[in-house]
Design a protein that fits this description.
The protein is built from nine helices and 16 strands. The N and C termini lie far apart (about 50 Å). Strand 9 and strand 10 form a beta hairpin. The relative contact order is 0.16. The chain is of the alpha/beta class. It has a single domain, classed as Metallo-beta-lactamase, Chain A. The chain binds zinc ion (2 copies). One zinc ion binds next to loops.
Length: about 375
């Protein structure tokens, strides 16, 4: 049955944010800032005061395309509600806490908080990716995409977090309340490693323990290298800041475990480039032990494809990276695009079957679930 109130509310809520961001990007640009690499060179992907992708120029496309997408979604009542509930389990807090303090005996483990937020325990470090614990992925908490379920682990139940990595500044990946709370609860000890241009944003929030990196730069924490790698996406948060800060994926390489976090990305040759460039470094452990790859927010394809990948492409990314195992993220939590929240697992299952990939090689977690990872050959 057609219910007019819900689609209007949801679609307009997201349209508000999307149009807000798009208009923000259309505003006149301020005088150029400079971005330089450690060696003093201006990176080729920073030109005219903006960061650029390696393989496409502008994202997310013209405002007319965005409005066409939103109009179609509103007219067709998209996304439909999920037909099956998103799996949720109670977190195994004793196991997470015990592993958190195991030091060199730490077993590689991941716990899904929801969306792109994952607790990764490996190499003696407790790392959190793109933490969002807020009710909405939005500039304000009264409108915008609302989460489908509570975070799989409450922020207060997390172990002490050594490092937070941020992929880019979109609201579903960089949540101000979450990073403030993480900084406060560790009394500033949590290190935030972020793409170039975001250190100033953190400073404005009173967060000082921040390292910002350009693509291919890395920062070592207790013998673990965190390297920002290129992915195909974009950035914007408010008025006049489109493409002003960088975006990326993270290659995290340590003695016991190499892992990769794809952040938010369309499919591009950047993943092959990453594997090629890091091959000598990854050879010591035979590649990435695990990749966190986005598998949601991909419809309609005509609009989303340059900036978000679908599950078929996510399997290709796993091959491009040479990852021994992968877990799908960026699904099941916020209604951002036209597919229902429960579609990515179905599409992933079809893609795995078509490509002969097992559900152990590329798996999904329930929200709140912890998986201890077996060593892979
Ligand atoms: Zn994004
Ligand atoms: Zn996203």
């Amino acid at each position: 049955m057609h219910t007019p109130c819900k689609p209007v509310r949801l679609s307009l809520a997201w349209a508000f944010c999307a149009v807000f961001l798009s208009l923000a990007g259309c505003a006149p640009q301020p005088p150029q800032t400079s971005a330089t690499q450690a060696g003093g060179n201006t990176p080729t992907h920073f030109q005219d005061g903006k960061f650029h992708n390696n393989y496409v120029d502008t994202l997310p496309g013209p405002l007319s395309d965005l409005l066409r997408w939103q109009w179609n979604a509103w007219r067709n009542n998209l996304p439909p509600p999920p037909r099956t509930p998103i799996p949720v389990v109670a977190p195994d807090l004793p196991a997470i806490s015990a592993n958190a303090v195991a030091g060199s005996a730490m077993r590689p483990a991941i716990t899904w908080v929801g969306h792109a937020s994952m607790l990764v325990q490996a190499n003696g470090l407790n790392v959190l990716t793109d933490p969002i614990f807020s009710e909405r992925a939005s500039p304000v908490q009264w409108i915008g995409p609302k989460r489908n379920q509570a975070p799989g682990v409450a922020l207060a139940d997390l172990p002490p977090i050594d490092v937070v990595v941020i992929s880019h500044n979109h609201y579903d990946h960089l949540d101000v309340a979450s990073v403030r709370a993480l900084n406060t609860r560790s009394a500033g000890k949590t290190l935030f490693i972020v793409p170039q241009g975001l250190k100033a944003w953190f400073a404005d929030e009173g967060i000082q323990n921040v390292v910002e990196l350009d693509w291919w730069q890395s920062h070592a924490v207790a013998g673990v290298d965190f390297m920002l790698t290129p992915v195909q996406h974009w950035s914007a948060r408010g008025i006049n800041d489109r493409h002003k800060t960088l975006w990326g994926g993270w290659a995290v390489m340590g003695p016991a475990f190499n892992w990769y976090f794809g952040g938010d990305s369309g499919y591009s040759a950047d993943f092959k480039d990453t594997a090629t460039r890091l091959a000598p470094r990854l050879a010591t452990r035979g590649g990435f032990d695990l990749a966190l790859i986005p598998v949601g927010a991909y419809e309609p394809e005509w609009f989303m494809q340059p900036q978000h990948m679908n599950p078929t492409q996510a399997l290709q990314v796993q091959r491009d990276l040479g990852a021994k195992q992968s877990v799908g993220v960026h699904w099941g939590t916020f209604n951002l695009t036209d597919e229902p929240l429960d579609q990515p697992p179905n599409d992933l299952a079809k893609a795995r079957a078509a490509q002969g990939v097992t559900d152990d090689q590329f798996f999904l977690l329930a929200i709140g679930e912890t998986r201890f990872l077996k060593p892979q050959p």
